[in-house]
Specification:
6-stranded mixed sheet; Rossmann fold; alpha/beta
């Protein structure tokens, strides 16, 4: 179970990164941490749900779509939206981005591979919205 708290500036928005590929997860965590966010990470949907049950201060969740196990990123996003509607969600996939109406969720989408600056801008925008 990989749930790690990474430091950020005190009072900075808290972001949860959910990604089963260690190198991709570490890139996202380090990128967001360097941008000043407090970053939590989880290696899968079950870990992410445990983190969210313990932390009421998460503002943005960035989740891969394809993860091992019965709960993929879409299902995780639906659970999060239902239980924690105040959390902004970014789904990430190496496949083509679906149209927003095809997601049937109020969330954003990014295509892998993404640049660090792209991730930072998207998270900053959503973190401001959730204030």
């Amino acid at each position: 179970m990989a749930i790690v708290r990474e430091g950020g500036a005190p009072g900075s928005p808290v972001v949860l990164v959910v990604e089963d590929e260690e190198i991709v997860r570490q890139f996202a965590v380090e990128t967001l941490q360097e941008a000043g966010f407090e970053v939590l990470d989880a290696g899968g949907a079950d870990d992410a749900l445990r983190v969210l049950a313990l932390r009421s201060d998460v503002k943005v969740m960035v989740s891969d779509v394809r993860m091992p196990g019965p709960v993929n990123g879409y299902f995780l996003a639906k659970k999060v939206r239902d239980r924690w509607p105040y959390i902004e969600i970014i789904l990430v996939s190496g496949y083509a981005a679906p149209a927003r109406q095809e997601l049937h969720l109020d969330c954003d989408f990014m295509v892998k591979p993404y640049e660090g600056d792209e991730l930072i801008k998207k998270v900053q925008s959503l973190a401001r919205r959730s204030l």
